[in-house]
């Protein structure tokens, strides 16, 4: 991969779904399909919306280790990023990624107590394409 930021960024920007992994209290992985990040800063930092009451939020509060995976099924390419997840409940973060129509999930609007932001910070990743995998650091 010549330019990881561009290659991975392009793949991420075309996906509607990412799979987010957390670790439960017994040390087992849990994977959840989520809408693609609302905002990203390069390939290091991603912001997603979720319910404060979700199981993943409680797991991330106890253990911030996380991964994010997405793939381009048409060309059989995938990217897994490994890092940590932060739960942001401040108003600035919530407003930063709020979109029209979000009241379907958060009826109380941007101030809904069951609405929070997941901030994922990647430290390394693995890219799969053309029958080969490649590890990289961020």
Structure description:
It is a single chain. The protein has 3 helices and 8 strands. Strands 1, 2, 3, 4, 5, 6, 7 and 8 form an 8-stranded antiparallel beta sheet that branches. Strand 7 and strand 8 form a beta hairpin. The radius of gyration is 15 Å and the shape is globular. The mean pLDDT is about 95. About 20% of the residues lie in helices and about 45% in strands. With about 140 residues, it is an alpha+beta fold.
| Helix amount | 10-25%
Strand pairing plus helix content: what structural class?
A: alpha+beta
The low-pLDDT segments are none
Shape: globular
Q: How would you sum up the major sheet?
A: 8 strands, antiparallel
SSE layout:
Elements (H helix, E strand, L loop, with lengths): L3 H10 L3 E7 L5 E7 L3 E3 L3 E7 L3 H8 L2 E8 L4 E12 L2 H7 L17 E15 L2 E6 L1
In short:
The protein has helices spanning 4-13, 55-62, 91-97, and strands spanning 17-23, 29-35, 39-41, 45-51, 65-72, 77-88, 115-129, 132-137.
What are its keywords?
138 residues; eight-stranded antiparallel beta sheet; alpha+beta; 18% helix; single chain
């Amino acid at each position: 991969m010549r330019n990881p930021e561009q290659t991975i960024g392009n793949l991420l920007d075309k996906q509607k779904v990412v799979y987010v992994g957390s670790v439960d209290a017994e040390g087992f992985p849990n994977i959840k399909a989520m809408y693609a990040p609302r905002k990203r800063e390069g390939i290091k930092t991603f912001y997603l919306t979720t319910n404060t009451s979700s199981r993943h939020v409680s797991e991330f509060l106890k253990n911030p280790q996380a991964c994010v995976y997405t793939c381009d099924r048409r060309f059989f390419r995938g990217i897994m990023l490994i890092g940590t997840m932060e739960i942001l409940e401040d108003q600035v973060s919530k407003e930063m990624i709020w979109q029209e129509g979000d009241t379907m999930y958060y009826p109380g609007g941007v101030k809904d107590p069951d609405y929070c932001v997941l901030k994922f910070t990647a430290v390394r990743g693995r890219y799969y394409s053309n029958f080969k995998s490649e590890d990289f650091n961020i």
